[in-house]
Design brief:
Layout: E1 2-3, E2 49-56, E3 66-73, H1 92-107, H2 111-121, H3 125-129, H4 140-154, E4 187-188, E5 191-192, H5 197-203, H6 215-228, H7 231-237, H8 241-254, H9 258-268, H10 277-284, H11 289-293, H12 296-303, E6 306-311, H13 312-325, H14 328-337, E7 338-343, H15 350-356, H16 387-393, H17 399-416, H18 435-449, E8 462-467, E9 474-479, E10 485-490, E11 495-499, H19 511-514, H20 524-527, E12 537-540, E13 547-552, E14 558-563, E15 567-572, E16 577-583, E17 589-594, E18 600-605, E19 609-614, E20 622-625, E21 631-636, E22 642-647, E23 651-656, E24 662-667, E25 673-678, E26 684-689, E27 694-698, E28 703-708, E29 715-720, E30 726-731, E31 735-740, H21 741-745, H22 750-755, H23 766-769, E32 770-775, E33 783-786, E34 792-797
Parallel strand pairs: 6-7, 8-34
Antiparallel strand pairs: 1-3, 2-3, 4-5, 9-10, 10-11, 11-12, 13-14, 14-15, 15-16, 17-18, 18-19, 19-20, 21-22, 22-23, 23-24, 25-26, 26-27, 27-28, 29-30, 30-31, 31-32, 33-34
Biased composition (Basic and acidic residues): 408-419
GO cellular component, one term: transcription factor TFIID complex
Region (Disordered): 1-69, 154-174, 385-437
């Protein structure tokens, strides 16, 4: 990199001194060389030049920034670096780029910088004045300059981030540092930026115009090449069809070639995989440049690089083909809009690829699932089980409770061992156990001794709660951990709470009556309840839109509800009134859930982010941003250190509560995800979606380990039994299915995981794992719950056909 320090002179480009200008690093070599990740940056000619013009501020003294010009060249893989000062030895492409930069400097009145660059590049005055490089059309320099100017316009707002492997401006030069800070949103030199910088920045990458009539020929040529390649490469290279089709169509629309775009779409949209049909429907409605500006799906597709995982052999084959054909248009798209994650080893088969693809942004990068996850359970607090309680519990003979005691001790001692995969006990602050919590844990232990041990030979009974005449429209259900209360969220904006035990729901007495109670009496908790208010059902009013999520706190004192009105409300189950309305989401909130330890809760909604809250803070503690579409469902890990979110972008993400980082991205579903559940030991995650499939994931290794096929409609609810032996799934197809979780997770060899190239071989054993299917008359299954004794409770609203 040769920077001309001695030629610096003062110019009139206004830059705020506090914004550090950036200098693009030279990107030399074949980006895919080491580490197996990323596309390369050399153009189809084998080694295009990237010119970076950058402003460097004067020696940190806060003075006027002075432009220095740096010319770097990208060498082909394995070759020695090209000397910076000899661009005329390169291809005409380099010369055209250089002319574009010089023309831009001249238009911006940066004479000294222009002369310095010309001297460095040994170019003559007349070369810039209009005569192109030998063998080029006269307008080539001007055309390149206009492409360059659009690129400068695009790069104006926001600080310039270093590009990940697989990026790189190809064709036009990347100019950075001319106004990269937020301090100069209005003008870049003399180039005005549009009012919506984010949208125009995103779209202007489509400015590189190719010949619109050639797009069909380019795409057909690539299609023919891939279809004629060897079977082992064909499946991998076929992944290119969809992202290239979308970007070529959008490029035609953006450059206002509407007829060509329509013809291109009609000719090739039928070749795309069936799981992209919904996206293609949205795409087909974008027929004019104006349509593109407000379309979220399109902007998502543009701003996030589509990730393809391809073996090195297949990638080299593709690269050689594009270089031979001089197919710049497709190569530019590959460079700009795709991230090719290259791995060494055998190419993947069609089945292996199909299992993993289907999300809005392609597959997850392998690096995304490498970080360590503490999936183990926290050590349970030691609680003494008092003997007198057991004597009261004696059912038939006095000898019975005594026999149970050793069992209880064994249960207590099992949880006292520290799990090696568990997070440190104090990694995140958790609320201390109250006396009532300890009593509840003791009750839980007693129930556990009566728990039925489930398995293929001992399936659970299922108790189905059907909401009849639910003309208000049932939109959410939750059941308390001890199975004593059921809450329903309805489309008429109410939340209704039922008691499903003989014990009725009672409110606390009024303040005047409470002052008369003897606070020292043993039954004070009973005395504060007002018997006059006792009823089986309580209705909670407060939301102003359909209630899409409901969640009881572990101690049964509170209930959360989330609604279309953009709020999450916390209700007291002592007074049956709203305590707090949490406002943070701007759009409907699709789901909310309490942490297994209480205090924290998570919500997810149409604004594409999930938020972590604490009950005593009215602002969110963490915002989990990264999904490209609505967050439909949220779930806490059993150790409360992680949150899983399922989205309409067809991915599942796992977030670290401590720092807000995304630690896992799971792709493989072919439709929006609507249900999540963790196994009781914290090792595995099950997810259900509109594609009717249930996928099983190993959290520690970050890989898919199973696929359960059987449902014919959206899987709305998933739950593991209390010991993790059985997975229950409930669907819109009006069935509950029980699966053998022990068999699904056994024989997982970690050797397979160490290859980590995505060579997953999913056994086709759904029918062997299916233990039972239970039909309802005409009731979609909205919610499932295992009681402490392993009885299944299911809930849904009867929908007459």
């Amino acid at each position: 990199m040769a920077a001309l320090a001695e030629e610096q002179t003062e110019v009139a480009v206004k830059l705020e001194p506090e914004v550090p200008p950036t200098l693009l690093p030279p990107q030399a070599g074949d980006g895919a060389g080491e580490g197996g990740g990323g596309t390369t940056n050399n153009g189809p000619n084998g080694g295009g030049g990237n010119v970076a013009a950058a402003a460097s501020s004067a020696g940190g003294d806060g003075g006027t920034p002075k432009p220095s010009v740096a010319v770097s060249a990208v060498a082909p893989a394995g070759a020695a670096p090209v000397p910076a000062a000899a661009p005329e030895a390169g291809a005409p492409h380099d010369r055209q780029t250089l002319l574009a930069v010089l023309q831009f400097l001249r238009q911006s009145n940066l004479r000294e910088a222009e002369e310095a660059l010309r001297r460095e590049a040994r170019l003559l005055e007349e070369a810039v004045a209009g005569t192109g490089a030998p063998g080029e059309a006269d307008g080539a320099g001007t055309e390149a300059a206009s492409a360059l100017l659009s690129r400068v316009t695009a790069s104006a707002p926001g600080p310039a981030a270093p590009d990940p492997p697989g990026t790189g401006a190809s064709g036009a030069a990347a100019v950075s540092g001319l106004a990269t800070g937020p301090a100069a949103p209005g003008k870049v030199g003399s180039v005005a930026v549009e009012d919506q910088p984010d949208v125009s920045a995103v779209l202007s990458a489509y400015n590189q115009q190719g010949d619109p009539t050639m797009y069909e020929e380019y795409y057909s040529g690539l299609k023919h090449f891939i279809e004629c390649s060897l079977d082992c490469h064909r499946a991998e290279l076929s992944q290119l069809f969809y992202p290239l089709f979308v970007h070529m169509y959008l490029e035609l629309v953006y450059n206002q070639h509407e007829n060509e775009a329509k013809s291109f779409f009609e000719k090739f949209h039928g070749d795309q995989e069936c799981y992209y049909q919904d996206d293609l429907r949205v795409l087909s409605s974008l027929t004019k440049k104006e349509h593109m500006k407000g379309n979220e799906t399109m902007l998502d597709f543009r701003t996030s690089k589509f990730v393809l995982r391809i073996s090195r052999d297949s990638y080299q084959l593709l690269k050689r083909h594009l270089q031979e054909k001089q197919n710049n248009q497709i190569w530019n798209i590959v460079q700009e809009h795709l991230y090719i994650d290259i791995f060494d080893g055998m190419p993947r088969s069609k089945q292996q690829i199909d299992a993993m693809v289907g999300s809005l942004a392609g597959e997850a990068k392998r690096e995304a699932n490498k970080s360590k996850v503490f999936f183990g359970l926290l050590k349970e607090p030691e609680i003494e089980v008092p003997l007198d309680d057991e004597d009261e519990e004696g059912e038939n003979e006095e000898g019975k409770p005594k026999k149970k005691k050793p069992k209880k001790d064994s249960i207590g001692s099992k949880s006292k061992k520290q799990d090696p995969n568990a997070p440190p006990q104090n990694r995140i602050p958790l609320p201390e156990l109250k006396d009532s919590d300890k009593l509840d844990k003791i009750m839980n232990m007693k129930e556990t001794t009566k728990r039925v041990r489930l398995g293929p030979d001992c399936l659970p009974s299922i108790c189905f709660y059907t909401f009849l005449n639910a003309y208000q429209g049932l939109t959410a259900v939750d059941v308390t951990d001890d199975s004593s209360l059921i809450a329903g969220g309805f489309a008429d904006s109410t939340v209704r709470v039922w008691s499903v035990t003989p014990k009725k729901l009672r409110s606390v007495k009024q303040a005047a009556d409470l002052s008369l109670i003897d606070k020292e009496s043993d039954d004070v908790l009973e005395r504060i309840m007002d018997e006059k208010t006792a009823s089986e059902l309580k209705i909670l009013y407060g939301h102003s839109g359909p209630v899409y999520g409901a969640s009881f706190s572990p101690d049964r004192n509170y209930l959360l509800s989330s609604s279309e009105d953009g709020t999450v409300r916390l209700w007291s189950l002592q007074t049956f009134t709203c305590l707090v309305g949490y406002k943070g989401h701007n759009y409907p909130v699709w789901d909310t859930q309490f942490s297994p330890y209480g205090y924290y809760f998570v919500s997810g909604g149409h604004d594409r982010v999930a938020r972590l809250w604490a009950t005593d803070h009215y602002q969110p503690l963490r915002i989990f941003a990264g999904h490209l579409a609505d967050v439909n469902c949220t779930r806490f890990h059993p150790n409360s250190n992680y949150v899983a979110t399922g989205s309409a972008d067809r991915t599942v993400r796992l977030w670290d509560v401590l720092n807000g980082n995304c630690v896992r991205i799971f792709t493989g579903h072919k439709g929006p995800i609507h249900s999540l559940t963790f196994s009781p030991n914290g090792r595995f995650l099950a997810t259900g979606a509109t594609d009717g499939r249930v996928l099983l994931w190993d959290i520690g290794h970050g890989l898919m380990v199973g696929e359960l096929k059987g449902h014919t409609d959206t899987v709305c609810s998933l739950r593991f039994s209390r010991d993790g032996e059985i997975l229950a799934s409930g669907s819109m197809d009006n069935t509950v299915r029980l699966w053998d979780a022990v068999k699904a997770f056994e024989d997982l060899e970690t050797d397979d995981f160490t290859t980590a190239t995505g060579h997953i071989n999913l056994p086709e054993n759904s029918q062997e794992l299916l233990l039972g299917t239970y039909m309802t008359k005409s009731t979609p299954v909205v919610h499932l719950h295992f009681t402490r004794r392993n009885l299944v409770l299911a809930a849904g609203a009867y929908s007459p056909q």
